[in-house]
Design goal:
The chain has 95 residues and is an all-alpha fold. The chain has a domain at 33-87. The chain has 2 helices and no strands. The longest helix is centred in the middle third of the chain and has 33 residues, at 18-50.
């Protein structure tokens, strides 16, 4: 004797990436002003080294170099761009 049990079709299990995309867009929106701020601090350090402005707030350590500040600003901007591209990758093209 063969007994067959039939179940109704349940909900489909799928990957939902919208939450991650929304978080990526939010993080990218916060990284852009942070990159601008860090870039301004880097320019302040550069002008302090050239003698155009008064002394810089940090006189010793790794953050006393303008190269570190500008490299950090570039890295933040690259991360913001990558997060923006990821966050907008699932959107339908605007007509």
């Amino acid at each position: 004797m063969v007994v067959r049990i039939r179940f109704n079709a349940g909900p489909r299990v799928g990957k939902k990436g919208r939450k991650n995309r929304r978080f990526a867009l939010a993080a990218a929106a916060l990284l852009n002003p942070a990159a601008l701020l860090v870039g301004v601090v880097g320019l302040w350090r550069l002008t302090a080294d050239l003698g155009f402005t008064a002394g810089f707030a940090i006189s010793s350590g790794i953050f006393s170099h303008w190269q570190v500040w500008l490299a950090t600003a570039v890295a933040l901007q690259v991360c913001a761009r990558a997060l923006n591209r990821y966050g907008k990758s699932g959107d339908a093209p605007a007509a």
